[in-house]
Amino acid sequence: MSKIKILHMYADMLDLYGDSGNMEIISYRCKMRGIECIVDKYSIDSEQPDFSSYDLIYIGGGADLEQQHISEDLQKCGDGIRAAYKNGTFLFLICGGYQLMGKHYRDADGVDIPGLGLFDYYTIAEPNRRKRCIGNVVVRTEFTGKTVDIVGFENHGGQTQGVKTPLGSVIYGHGNCTKSSHEGYFEKNVIATYMHGPCLAKNPEVSDYIIGYCLDRGSNEKTVLNALDDKLEKDCRQVMIDRLLNK
Amino acid sequence: MNGILIIIGKLIVAILRLFKRNAGNLPGIVLWHLTGGKCCKMFKVSCPIIAVTGTNGKTSVTNCIAQLFERSGKKIIINKEGNNLDTGICSLLLRHCSCSGKVDADYLILETDESHVPVVYSQLKLETLVVLNFFRDQLDRNGEMETLIQKINGFCKTFDGNLLLNGDDPNTARLGRANPNNKNVKYFHAEPYAFATKTIFEASEGRFCPFCGEPLEYEYYQYSHIGKFKCGKCGFGDSVPYITAEKIDLEKPVFTADSHEYSPKLNSIYNIYNMTAVAGAAKLYGIEQKITDSVISEYTVNNGRMETFMLGDRRTTLNLAKNPVGANMTLRVMNEMQGEKELLFVLNDNVADGLDVSWIWDINFSVFERVTRVVTSGTRAYDIAVRIKCSGYPAEKIVVRPDLDEAVTELAATDGRKFVIANYTAVQPTRAALKRYIEKHGGKHE
Question: Which of A186, A189, B82, B109 allows an S-S link to A167, with CB 3.0 to 4.6 Å?
């Protein structure tokens, strides 16, 4: 039986707007295909795991306070995560997880939280706590090889700048900054986004991109995943797209 | 100036009433603008004010405390319709004050929204604050959890009145340390009930000590993060309760507090917590025991909180779930019941619901037992269907009917026990749809 191994970091602290649901969805879609899916958890002061042994590292979002709590611990994992990323481990990062892989995150009080600096972008939180990017968001993506409009829910004060390879273009909502044209960050083994909801709930193509990548990691083969019945998920997304874009 | 404002407010109330409109909030909104946001400041209140706040159970506890005083022969004013923001409370006082703004009553009992506690009680003098619990609820309206607790904590730093706190909720109990000089901090607590667990069962907040950051140690969890906790490092949670619910038996249901047995009508653990808070308030104000007994034993609700409908001969229980905790409680009640059953879940995403519906992913659906079919409805009928499917429930047993009347007809199409969960703005439309079904096809609304 094929197998994927996931490290879910700080699940007990970074879990906003259903973020842990992403792990439930990946596990579900693996189970339906007979793929074994192991999800290990890592939190503050856990023993340092062998990051490179994981196919996927997942980090969700949290409030400023929680991000401050974990940032020191995250630095300790910096070398491990960097090596894993270079070694082809997939990084799936939501909101706070997204911000902390950049150069730095300046919170609403002006306090700088250092990021791991894996990527060139950086984030500055809007100092006025009431001015947040909140609402449903529709993002047009091409990374799966087809045009797919994905739908999620964003709620962030952070304005992320310096993204050279975004996940997609914003059709509805804010994206990386207030009213920005692009959303998220993408590399072939990185999806970083502000989309909660959870992000994968209505977007089975994204789940399958990640699962497919993980199965093929370190080999030259291209696994074709069995199709699942995604009617509910796709109807769910279409209802939102029709509503938001007044179709 | 105050006199003029009050007369303007009273005029708006009179006009709204003339057109048979509810004057629950609008007069307050107008005065809020005229007073630069200080719409409660112009009233002269000389009687004690008791406020109840928290995520779940505010309405129940406020009504019960009001009953304690009413049955003791006191004149009370209460915001019964749940208008619990500053503008709602202003509208309420406008209806009950003289033209000089004097409010005439023995006690004001006010359900108060969590985020409005500091706003309202910086303007009106508060005697007692009852805080029930803090859960994730409408996160994007209130900002994040911590911001909300910080706001109330800031208020408590200078508050020296009675503070009656849920000692089993770390998010609530921490308020007891806000003002070290306040000698009137009291905690209510409950001993473990039959379904209490050693490990946490549902998604939750507050796993870390807010004072020193250590993970909290739990002796038991009652539901979500509510339970007997302690910080091994700084001793947070180690307080002596003012009142304790013991010998809890939800089958009957009964519980004992201060060696007295109470028999509430509703059989959920969160109702036991609410009633313990009520018994605590009764103790604080020296209410006669037989009055407290009658209030606690008679209290029931018919506003979509464990409300019963008969769809023909099919018994149907409707429960409001504004957040995962409420939904998990209903699922527990459903699971603890023998036999097969079907569930209708109605999910809306209107402004008052908080626009986002991701909280449904914090509901633990994997516990489903003997649930033979699920119908989903509401503006986000598909979202809840996807969520239940991904918990491992067979997709072919899920029926999506966004239209409520169609959903109720679908639910009633088979025999057996039915449960309905509806979120905040979905409750009243769901009640209406259930009643329409009964009118058309027979049955009873109890």
Answer: A186
